[in-house]
Design goal:
mainly alpha, 0% strand, globular, disordered N terminus
Length: 251
């Protein structure tokens, strides 16, 4: 991973628009914390080069998002529903109180209340620090908030705790694709498919990744796989993917 991209992520966490402050503690989010900026420095040649490279990185991420928006889908790339089946019976010291916290966190996530959901997942993590599902869901929140380094830490930790979590591999693969790390993204997404061949989301993410990298044959096949695995072939999502697939293949 490039030093420039790491610097970009660190800067992202330190000046997050909602007032978050990077304190060096994973997953910690402060409300309206103060942040003192350094005095302005003179612009030199190296600074200008770095700025240009950051624009290139940002453009790559924007291109991937535009690919998804072109289809008009609410991206199925990251999903919390599948994990909801696992968490109530997780053998990690989970108590009824923890189950309630996780259920409330899931509802807040689905309603788009990221800060509320984040706070609840962190409470859950205090009770069950080695719960892979909680780490994965924290990763989803940070992904939504575009705090990518924290998202990657939690997704990676979830995989350290549970190598059989197809959703975790899918989510980390999706994040890697956003960051322009195509090879790693493909590896994680294919692992997700291997673990759960009936899981539709990684096929969608592979399709977007392949299309972005001009592998139109791979993109078409992955979109077709996604359609086959969709629970409702007559859904709005399926219709939009079918429409995009026709545009992609010219058929």
């Amino acid at each position: 991973m490039s030093v420039i991209l790491k610097a970009l992520r660190a800067q992202k966490e330190n000046v997050q628009g909602s007032g978050s402050v990077n304190t060096g503690k994973e997953g910690l989010f402060l409300g309206k914390g103060g942040f003192v900026q350094s005095p302005p420095k003179k612009i030199n040649k190296r600074t200008l080069i770095l700025a240009l490279l950051l624009v290139v990185v940002g453009s790559a991420t924007l291109l991937l998002r535009q690919r998804i928006q072109k289809i008009g889908l609410p991206s199925p790339a990251v999903s919390i529903e599948a994990l909801a089946v696992k968490t109530p019976t997780a053998p990690t010291g989970e108590t009824p109180a923890l189950s309630q916290i996780m259920e409330e966190a899931k509802k807040s996530y689905e309603q788009g209340n990221w800060d509320v959901s984040l706070s609840l997942w962190q409470k859950g993590l205090e009770q069950s620090p080695n719960n892979a599902s909680i780490h994965n869901n924290l990763g989803l929140i940070f992904l939504k908030k575009e705090i990518y380094s924290s998202a990657e830490k939690h997704f990676s930790r979830s995989l350290e705790l549970d190598q059989s979590c197809a959703e975790c591999f899918n989510n980390l693969g999706y994040l890697k694709s956003l960051l322009g790390e195509a090879k790693e993204a493909e590896t994680y997404l294919k692992k997700s498919v291997q673990l759960n061949p009936q899981y539709a989301d990684p096929h969608f993410n592979l399709a977007v990744l392949y299309e972005k990298n001009d592998n139109l044959g791979g993109a078409a096949q992955s979109f077709q796989n996604f359609l086959v695995l969709q629970k409702d072939p007559n859904s709005k999502i399926s219709f939009k993917v079918q429409q995009h697939l026709r545009e992609l293949t010219g058929k």
